[in-house]
Design goal:
Layout (H helix, E strand, L loop, with lengths): L6 H4 L21 H4 L23 E2 L6 H14 L3 E3 L7 H10 L8 E6 L6 H15 L6 E4 L8 H14 L5 E4 L3 H10 L4 E7 L7 H9 L3 E5 L11 H10 L3 H11 L3 E2 L6 H8 L8 H8 L18
Parallel strand pairs: 1-2, 2-3, 3-4, 4-5, 5-6, 6-7, 7-8
Helix pairs in contact: 3-4, 3-11, 4-5, 5-6, 9-10
The protein binds NADP nicotinamide-adenine-dinucleotide phosphate (NAP).
The site of NADP nicotinamide-adenine-dinucleotide phosphate has 29 residues, from helix 11.
């Protein structure tokens, strides 16, 4: 899996210069989005929702594994206005996510909480058993969306999805999602699953726009949730995104998130500290003009940043 460290490029260099040119960071326009996070006014911003009620901008939590920090990220996001939190059994942070929800001054019922069943737990009994464990770790009575994390290892469409349907019927989960499903796998899943499948969570950002997959989801009335919506930092190195960001004095993450919203896609950027959480939230105010959308659509670089051996595109 290729991971890109971000902060050395997004923050001010140690010598006080802008990280993207040689100007003084305090006066350089590149730093507008980065130096003055606390000045960004996000009060009163609300995320739009899908027709099923899923907030279209959420908080990702992969690799936010320090319990204190993870809990604090979740609390900060919820109190800023976020209402969608994404976790997974595999992130090893469900308890911390639950703690952040508990500590936030927001009703649990107002939070859209999603988790995912890992690939070793997709046999019928394991789905039922480990979903209960997840819910217990999260400290809640139900989750809003439960995903099949990957169509891999113990995944079997009939067996796995009948367990998901059972959880749905029992009220323990409010909706079923799949993740990393190719169009044909989505179609098989939709046939196999008695309860509706409302979302397919996939890698999606300006360097991996996935038009065919988006079209397939649309045809079946399945929402697309973009993971790694900042390409885990890849958007910072893309000249077209730099130019749109510079033109409007906004950050590259904001450009990427505004582009995704224009595509009708939900996004769950992972952010740890208040500055990044706020910067991403402030993207809700932005509407990119058509020429900027075209510029980003015209990017021909392609980069998949989450690419394990068991990914269905590697089979
Ligand atoms: N279903 C799946 O298989 C799957 C796979 C991957 C991810 N996901 C989900 O999708 C979420 C997001 O994807 P991701 O974590 O891979 O990558 P991402 O959201 O594309 O990028 C996260 C990185 O961007 C940084 N960042 C966030 N906002 C920023 C800002 N405004 N300015 C500068 N840097 C910023 C974060 O730093 P800080 O942490 O320091 O703020 C972190 O290093 C995950 O957390 C997870 O919930 C799901």
């Amino acid at each position: 899996m290729a991971l890109t460290p971000l902060d050395e490029r997004t923050r001010v260099k140690a010598d006080g210069e802008c990280s993207r040119c040689n100007h003084n960071a305090l006066s350089c326009s590149h730093q507008n989005g980065y130096m003055s996070f606390e000045d960004v006014d996000t009060a009163g911003l609300e995320s739009p929702r899908t027709t099923d009620g899923m907030p279209m901008l959420g908080l990702g939590t992969w690799e936010n594994t320090d319990p204190e920090q993870c809990s604090e990220s979740v609390r900060t996001a919820l109190e800023m206005g976020y209402r969608h939190i994404d976790t997974a059994q595999a992130y090893d942070n469900e308890a911390a996510v639950g703690d952040g929800i508990e500590r936030a001054d927001v009703d649990r019922d107002d939070v859209f909480l999603a988790t995912k069943i890992w690939i070793s737990n997709l046999a019928y009994d394991d789905v039922i058993h480990t979903a209960h464990e997840s819910i217990e770790r999260l400290g809640v009575e139900y989750v809003d969306l439960l995903y099949v994390h990957w169509p891999a290892r113990t995944y079997d469409p009939e067996e796995t999805l009948s367990a998901f349907s059972e959880l749905y019927d029992s009220g323990l989960i409010n909706a079923i999602g799949v993740s990393n499903f190719l169009p044909e796998q989505l179609e098989t899943a939709l046939e196999a699953c008695e309860a509706p499948i409302v979302a397919n969570q996939v890698e999606l950002h300006p360097l991996l726009p996935q038009p065919e997959l988006r079209e397939a989801c649309k045809r079946h009335g399945v929402e697309v949730v973009a993971y790694s919506p900042l390409a885990r930092g890849g958007v910072f190195d893309q000249p077209e995104i730099n130019s749109v960001a510079d033109k409007h004095g906004i950050s590259e993450p904001q450009v990427s998130l505004a582009w995704l919203r224009e595509k009708g896609v939900t996004a769950i950027p992972k952010a740890t500290g208040e500055d990044h959480i706020r910067d991403n939230w402030a993207s809700l105010e932005l509407e990119l003009p058509p020429e900027d959308i075209e510029t980003i659509d015209g990017i021909d670089a392609r980069e998949r940043v989450v690419d394990p051996d068991f990914g269905p595109w590697n089979q």
